[in-house]
Design goal:
The protein is mainly β. The chain has 4 helices and 19 strands.
Length: 226
């Protein structure tokens, strides 16, 4: 498999497959493919794994792609203005915000993970369920806004505004902490809590969440006064 990520803030991942190579994606991620590519919906891992994917906001089915009669090309894009990032899972598993998975080599396993603490569920911004990507090969994730990838040293801590943590390696400890004193929490615009990510491991932070984008557009939406 060969690939390129093109574009600025409305990106494509362009994947070239040789005959016999397989690739998979979330439903609706495919934007184009060459004429010798075939696409088939498959419930990878059976009904139970399909049900898990539906709980993560994905489809019961993954789409599988194959090239016939030589190499072929298939392109994927995210559902909102934002970035696409490649993750090498041979270097370890990743935890990803709900619906962050875009596509991957077939050797990548997509599963759901649960927040480990009640505080994370109530105030962490992503709810009970997050995605876990494991196995081997390359996976691609997408999310709104621009990305900042930070490689945390052991014990190094980043505090991230709620919902802006896109992904982190499973070596990173994930928790919540107070945003500050009462005045800061009330007038700081960040709410009562922020996400704390403690190294070692890489983290991915987005400049704008989907909720923030939707909120920014509300004043410009047409209003029906009837």
């Amino acid at each position: 498999m060969k690939y390129t990520i093109t574009g600025d803030n409305l990106q494509f991942v362009n994947v070239q497959l040789d005959e016999g190579e397989k690739f998979q994606s979330a439903a609706g991620a495919m934007k184009y493919m060459s004429g010798n590519m075939t696409m088939e919906a498959k419930m990878k891992g059976g009904f139970l794994n399909g049900l898990k994917r539906s709980l993560m906001g994905e489809s019961l089915f993954l789409l599988e792609y194959n090239s016939h009669g030589g190499s072929g090309v298939v392109g994927f894009g995210g559902g909102v203005p934002g970035k696409i990032l490649d993750l090498d899972l041979s270097k370890g598993s990743w935890l990803v915000q709900k619906t962050g998975y875009l596509c991957s080599e077939e050797t990548v396993d997509l599963d759901m993970a649960f927040q480990k603490k009640l505080g994370n569920i109530l105030f962490g911004g992503e709810g009970l369920i997050i995605q876990k990507l494991s196995g081997t090969g390359i996976a691609f994730i997408s999310a709104c806004g621009d990305f900042n990838v930070v490689d945390l040293k052991p014990g190094e801590v980043y505090k991230v505004s709620s919902s802006n943590a896109v992904a982190w390696q499973d070596t990173v400890k994930y928790d919540i902490s107070s945003a500050g004193n009462f005045k800061t929490a009330l007038f700081g615009g960040e709410g009562l809590f922020v996400t704390t990510l403690t190294g070692p491991g890489k983290i991915v932070i987005q400049s704008m969440s989907l909720g923030e984008l939707a909120g920014a557009l509300i004043p410009y939406l047409p209003v029906n006064n009837q």
